[in-house]
């Protein structure tokens, strides 16, 4: 195993799963962003060679290229995970993918570089879809249904969200995640990214991918089949289950996390997503259908806007408004290359900064 983003939420939980199953896994490489102290403690705890514990995305790419391993867990946050993702696929290793941004901005660069079954999703929603899809043939699938917790502002109007603070945006009711992902969950940009990810992973058209709000976060996603039946994957909220399954796919490990307690009463509710208030999902479908560098622009502009929000430069509602403006002004190249993706991301960040500067 190689764990990229080892000091983050996904990486630390992956290492906890590995610790609980020492006979199954051996860690041979670790990569982190900047937390050198924790990285060193992890290196010592798992017996990783000093030269195989590295800092930075560029070093992570070299680590993947130069280290023998069967599985790479990509838990890096953001589109900087694209190069390590491509390196993993090019070396033939199985990619347990939690870094959704690399798939989204890379698009066909990633899907065309991968062999069948080489990418195993680690996002809870896409892990759930992969499990449910085992229940029928591809031609029997009618819809993919992604569940969303609704975040901290479920049921709010845009007017109510005008005065949202960074502290409120980071108070997710279900999951403990990093700053960017938690903010993306509050704006529902994260769900928009997941719609694009589901399309790329499973080849289902965007008009057959739906989102439903499920505040309890027990049903992680569902697949509807042509006969009218629906299969759902359920468990109490825990990322360890999809992480463990991503590392051992298609086999399951024992006792990864507690199951639902069927001796106690529980209510699970579902409601439609208000795409007028949370317009990030419709915008994601738009850029996903456009393809080329549009998803990269959507993602990069959002990352820039999220950082500006946390610095107090823009309001909460302005995050998606800014992304929409940047996407609308983008002119994509005629082909998708790594160089074009990187150039589009830089353009999107510069354009977002420019729009904010004029607004101020």
Question: Which structural traits does this protein have?
Answer:
single chain, 360 residues, alpha/beta, Rossmann fold, Rna Polymerase Sigma Factor, Chain: A, 6-stranded parallel sheet, 5-stranded mixed sheet, globular
What would your notes on this structure say?
This protein is α/β, with parallel strands linked by helices and 360 residues long. It has 3 domains: 2-121, 3-Layer(aba) Sandwich (Rossmann fold), CATH 3.40.50; 123-289, no CATH class; 292-360, RNA polymerase sigma factor, region 2, helix turn helix motif (Rna Polymerase Sigma Factor, Chain: A, Orthogonal Bundle), CATH 1.10.1740.10. It has helices spanning 9-20, 36-45, 57-66, 82-90, 100-106, 108-111, 124-133, 166-169, 179-187, 189-202, 240-248, 280-290, 294-310, 318-328, 338-359; strands at residues 2-4, 29-32, 53-55, 71-74, 94-97, 119-121, 141-148, 209-213, 219-225, 230-234, 271-272. The strands form 2 sheets. A 6-stranded parallel beta sheet has the order 3-2-1-4-5-6, sandwiched between helices. Strands 10-9-7-8-11 form a 5-stranded mixed beta sheet, covered by helices on one side. The longest helix is centred in the C-terminal third of the chain and has 22 residues, at 338-359. The model has no long low-confidence stretch (mean pLDDT 96).
């Amino acid at each position: 195993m190689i764990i990229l983003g080892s000091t983050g939420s996904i990486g630390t939980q992956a290492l906890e799963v590995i610790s609980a199953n020492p006979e199954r896994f051996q860690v041979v490489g670790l990569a982190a962003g900047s937390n050198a102290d924790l990285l060193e403690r992890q290196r010592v705890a798992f017996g990783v060679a000093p030269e195989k514990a590295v800092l930075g995305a560029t070093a992570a790419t070299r680590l993947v290229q130069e280290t023998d391993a069967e599985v790479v867990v990509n838990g890096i946050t953001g589109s900087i995970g694209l190069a390590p993702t491509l390196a993993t696929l090019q070396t033939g290793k199985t990619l347990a993918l939690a870094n959704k941004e690399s798939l989204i901005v890379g698009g066909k660069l990633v899907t065309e570089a991968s062999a069948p079954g080489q990418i195993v999703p680690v996002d809870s929603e896409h892990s759930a879809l992969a499990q449910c899809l085992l229940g029928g043939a591809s031609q029997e699938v009618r819809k993919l249904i992604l569940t969303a917790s609704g975040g901290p502002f479920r049921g709010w109007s845009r007017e109510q969200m005008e005065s949202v603070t960074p502290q409120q945006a980071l108070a997710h009711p279900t999951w403990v995640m990093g700053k960017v992902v938690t903010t993306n969950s509050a704006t529902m940009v994260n769900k928009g990214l997941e719609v694009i990810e589901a399309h790329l992973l499973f080849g289902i058209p965007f008009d057959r991918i739906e989102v439903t709000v499920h505040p309890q976060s027990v049903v992680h996603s569902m697949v509807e089949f042509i006969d009218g039946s629906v299969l759902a994957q359920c468990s109490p909220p825990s990322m360890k289950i999809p992480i463990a399954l991503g590392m051992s796919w298609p086999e399951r490990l024992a006792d990864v996390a507690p199951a639902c307690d069927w001796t106690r009463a529980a209510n699970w509710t579902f409601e439609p997503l208000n795409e007028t208030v949370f317009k990030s999902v419709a915008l994601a479908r738009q850029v996903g259908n456009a393809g080329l560098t549009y998803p990269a622009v959507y993602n990069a502009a959002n990352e820039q806007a999220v950082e500006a929000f946390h610095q107090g430069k823009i309001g909460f509602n302005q995050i998606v408004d800014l992304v929409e403006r940047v996407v609308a002004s983008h002119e994509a190249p005629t082909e998708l290359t790594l160089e074009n993706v990187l150039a589009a991301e830089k353009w999107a960040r510069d354009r977002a900064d420019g729009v904010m500067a004029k607004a101020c």
